[in-house]
């Protein structure tokens, strides 16, 4: 299964945009890119996913590189409630999610 | 709409006692089901997944087992708990898709925090 690489931690100021990067150089042509986040003491929450084109929803935007070897999750205006661990995942052959260490996002007031 | 139920929310069990955690999904049919565990300060580890009734795949050898007696029911069990079984257990589901494409998000339950004493 393809693996992903993310920075361990990032900081952002409140109400500023946040760009969370993810590298997935071994991605296959049919792998969707999923993003989840986990707030303290809660289960992971789906954020967004995409295949080739950039995607937008009420929570975030996903920018996918043309070669699909990297992607960026964009939070347009970070709030204190966005502080969480963000995971970039390529589901496996049985559609199972394998979580790495993710990126711990700290939002500063 | 689809919902996932997981219970209990917290559980304290003595070493050597049995365990049964239940997860049910409503509002969908033929889901893929998953059990994850998160030890304190650690990442999420996939324990089991199921693509159908009676079909269980184990990712990591454990003191645990899983069963899927009904389409939308997934049970995590242990005959004798160990201290190392303590952690945050999460059930999740995803739609059963054809073509091998994972173009739907996964939904997680609220979790069970298990403490083995």
DSSP summary, beta strand count of chain A = 9
The span between the termini of chain B is: 38 Å
Which two protein chains have the largest interface (Cβ within 8 Å of the partner's Cβ), and how many residues from each?
Answer: A-B, 25 and 28 residues
Mean pLDDT over all positions of chain B:
89
The strand order across the widest sheet of chain A is: 1-9-8-3-4
Radius of gyration of chain A equals 13 Å
Multimeric status of the protein: heterodimer
Relative helix content of chain A? under 10%
Mean pLDDT of chain A: 91
- Cα shape of chain B: globular
Terminal-residue CA separation of chain A: 39 Å
- Please count the helical segments of chain A: 0
Cα radius of gyration of chain B in angstroms: 14 Å
Beta strand % of chain B: over 45%
The string of secondary-structure elements of chain B, in order, is: EEEEEEEEEEE
Summarize the structure.
The complex is a heterodimer of chains A (109) and B (117). Chain A is built from no helices and nine strands.
